[in-house]
């Protein structure tokens, strides 16, 4: 570890980065084979873990303060603790590698370049929660990742890090790759479980709120994101308390920010949570905006996060007032600013972008991806698409903007899963913050045409 | 059972089913992937075959096929192309990429809709569809040709890209 690591030309990490999970990404001479992984200290933490009490591993993860990196930011150790203590059923663990939140692109690099890091983290996690069967749910659009993972799992089995009697401990575990088939809803953990059961991925009714109580095959199941599981081995290596010194209180460790959109150098950056601000992300990590352009808006945590407007002033409860560039990239401050850190996908938009066009692009996404189980979401997401299609085409009346907002308000909080929020928050926030611009894209004279029954009858050929 | 599944494929299928010791039904998705890989799209015969193999009703397989965008119910071209449509790629020019790929491959997308997302070139060589976020948002526009992933594909490079797939 102390040996100097060199990275491929043009892929050197930024000095502001703190690489744990991405330590081996784009690294010169590193390859996904188990030989390379073991030569770099791989599976040492698994050897340590199988000598520990299971509860001690869970306690270390709790102490680390690790919050799930998939989107919700729920404490991973606490999630593990939700398995009923009296449980007698089999326990399963699923790695959610269905990465599909627009703006997020981190898991692919781990799966392609450092698959054993994930597998080691998974085996430790499985050992801790007593899972004997686990799956890696990989999105269908990552066919190469599935092949690499299959190979890595076979290598791990051949080396007794997986399979029967792991490292002579008597502990049995197998992990299989399960490929999705192109549906965003499979990122929702209960939808994912239904999908893994061979059904349509309709999210399950809550409660129970956590599959740790009732999950795959109606047994306790832990579902964790790729990045979260990778952190587990680093937590054991550093110790929970040391790990928690990274980042900021309640927002510990490192996380991978994925930056896309209108910046000079978009890309992925692993930073300590809350130790860089939005302004540093844009100006330092990403080399600033494009020449001559001004910042207009930012989606800070994947497309479902509420948009932030460049000139907003965020008043926090502790009295601080932050401009958009001052926001530290952590879970709590981003929530206090009315949005969310989500999956770490940051989409930057400059003044060349039409906000009507942007929200219409996202509404098309959500209309396509609604699973259709709940009426408000199935119908609402489609209406949001249709109305914003109309505004973009210049065929909408000014009142359509308010109608768009009304439809969004009738989805949020009225659905089985969080997709309802995920699809309504973008529309709600874009309309709230860019209402004038959107109304400017409509045609005032259409108002009369739409509401006048005589005109409608005439249009229908009935007058 | 109208479908004659090659022995090698059936052996692979039998192996995959062992990955799901608790419930064979879980093997629906992997079996459909193998079927689509073999036959290029999911036929009614394939649905019936998978259902019989797993002890399910055909509707339990069909409802899965019709849900997931990853399963096709009509024949694609020899090379199937997916262009990412979602925000970051769209900002980087994926709609323009779609247009220039269609031009280079001689594909007419005018009849495409939600239920028929795929358009095929007149000679059957290429087919194309928009896909939602392919998760490489920093390096758009992004597209996949078959299982190959291509990043930062400038619209003007479309013809060059297709030359790799003959």
Question: Care to describe what's here?
Answer:
The complex is a heterodimer of chains A (463) and B (166). Chain A has 463 residues and is α/β, with parallel strands linked by helices. Chain A folds into 3 domains: 34-244, 3-Layer(aba) Sandwich (Rossmann fold), CATH 3.40.50.11540; 247-350, Ubiquitin-like (UB roll); 355-446, Up-down Bundle (de novo design (two linked rop proteins)). Chain A has helices at residues 34-39, 44-49, 54-64, 76-80, 107-113, 115-129, 143-158, 189-196, 226-238, 240-244, 278-285, 331-336, 355-369, 375-392, 399-409, 419-433, 435-440, 444-451, 453-459, and strands at 91-97, 131-138, 174-179, 221-225, 247-248, 251-252, 254-261, 267-272, 295-299, 308-309, 313-315, 321-323, 345-350. In chain A, the strands form 4 sheets. Chain A has a 5-stranded mixed β-sheet, covered by helices on one side. In chain A, strands 3-2-1-4 form a 4-stranded parallel β-sheet, with helices on both faces. In chain A, strands 5-6 form a two-stranded antiparallel sheet. In chain A, strand 7 (254-261) and strand 8 (267-272) form a beta hairpin. In chain A, helix 14 (375-392) packs parallel to helix 16. The termini of chain A are far apart. The mean pLDDT of chain A is 95. Chain B is built from 7 helices and 5 strands, in the order ααααβααββββα. Chain B has 2 domains: 7-67, Arc Repressor Mutant, subunit A; 79-163, Glutaredoxin, CATH 3.40.30.10. Chain B has helices spanning 7-17, 28-39, 44-54, 58-67, 87-92, 94-105, 158-163; strands at residues 79-84, 119-120, 126-131, 143-145, 148-150. Chain B is α+β, with helices and mostly antiparallel strands and 166 residues long. In chain B, strands 2-3-1-4-5 form a 5-stranded mixed β-sheet, with helices on one face. Helix content of chain B is 41%, strand content 12%. At the A-B interface, strand 3, strand 7, strand 13 and helix 13 of A face helix 2, helix 4 and helix 5 of B.
């Amino acid at each position: 570890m102390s040996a100097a690591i060199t990275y491929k030309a043009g892929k050197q990490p930024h000095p502001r980065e703190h690489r744990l999970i991405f330590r081996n990404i784009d690294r010169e001479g590193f390859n996904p084979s188990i030989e390379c992984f073991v030569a770099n200290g791989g599976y040492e933490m698994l050897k340590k873990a199988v000598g520990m009490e299971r509860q001690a591993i869970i306690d270390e993860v709790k102490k680390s303060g690790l919050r799930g990196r998939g989107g919700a930011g729920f404490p991973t150790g606490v999630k593990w603790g939700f398995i009923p203590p009296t449980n007698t059923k089999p326990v399963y663990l699923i790695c959610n590698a269905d990465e599909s939140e627009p703006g997020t692109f981190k898991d692919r690099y781990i799966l392609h370049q450092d698959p054993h890091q994930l597998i080691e983290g998974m085996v430790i996690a499985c050992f801790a929660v007593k899972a004997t069967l686990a799956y890696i749910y990989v999105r269908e659009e990552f066919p190469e990742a599935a092949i690499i993972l299959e190979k890595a799992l076979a290598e791990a089995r051949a080396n007794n890090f997986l399979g029967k009697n792991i490292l002579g401990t008597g502990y049995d575990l197998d992990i299989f790759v399960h490929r999705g088939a192109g549906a965003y809803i499979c990122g929702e953990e209960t939808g994912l479980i239904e999908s893994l059961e061979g059904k349509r991925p309709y999210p399950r009714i809550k409660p129970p709120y956590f599959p740790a109580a009732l999950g795959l095959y109606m047994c306790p199941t832990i579902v964790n994101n790729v990045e979260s599981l990778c952190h587990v081995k680093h937590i054991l290596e550093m110790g929970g308390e040391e790990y928690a010194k990274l980042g900021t209180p309640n927002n510990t460790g490192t996380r991978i920010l994925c930056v896309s959109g209108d910046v000079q150098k978009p890309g992925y950056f692993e930073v300590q949570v809350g130790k860089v601000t939005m302004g540093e992300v844009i100006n330092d990590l990403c080399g600033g905006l494009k020449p001559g352009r001004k910042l207009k808006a930012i989606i800070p945590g994947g497309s479902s996060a509420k948009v932030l407007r460049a000139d907003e002033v965020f008043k926090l409860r502790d009295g601080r007032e932050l401009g958009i560039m001052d926001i530290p990239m952590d879970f709590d401050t981003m929530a206090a600013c009315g949005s969310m850190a989500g999956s770490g996908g940051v989409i930057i938009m400059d003044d060349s972008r039409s906000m009507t066009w942007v929200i219409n692009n996202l509404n098309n996404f959500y209309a396509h991806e609604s699973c259709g189980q709940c009426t408000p979401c199935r119908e609402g997401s489609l209406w949001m698409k249709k109305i914003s299609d109309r505004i973009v085409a210049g065929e909408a009346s000014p009142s359509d903007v308010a109608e768009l907002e009304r439809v969004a308000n009738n989805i949020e909080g009225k659905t089985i899963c969080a997709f309802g929020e995920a699809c309504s928050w973008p529309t709600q926030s874009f309309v709230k913050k860019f209402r004038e611009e959107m109304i400017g894209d409509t045609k005032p004279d259409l108002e009369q045409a739409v509401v006048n029954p005589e005109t409608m009858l005439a249009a229908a050929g009935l007058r | 059972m109208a479908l004659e599944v090659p022995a090698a494929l059936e052996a692979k299928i039998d192996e995959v089913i062992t990955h799901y010791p608790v419930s064979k039904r879980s093997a629906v998705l992997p079996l459909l992937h193998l079927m689509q890989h073999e036959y290029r799209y999911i036929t009614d015969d394939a649905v019936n075959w998978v259902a019989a193999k797993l002890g399910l009703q055909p509707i339990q397989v069909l409802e899965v096929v019709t849900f997931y965008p990853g399963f096709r119910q009509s024949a694609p071209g020899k090379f199937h192309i997916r262009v990412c449509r979602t925000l970051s790629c769209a900002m980087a020019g994926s709609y323009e990429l779609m247009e220039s790929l269609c031009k280079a491959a001689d594909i007419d997308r005018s009849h495409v809709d939600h239920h028929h997302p795929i358009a095929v070139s007149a000679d059957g060589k290429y087919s194309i569809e928009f896909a939602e976020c392919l998760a490489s948002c920093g390096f758009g526009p992004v597209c996949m040709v078959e299982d190959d992933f291509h990043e930062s594909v400038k619209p003007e490079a479309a013809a060059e890209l297709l030359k790799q797939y003959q």
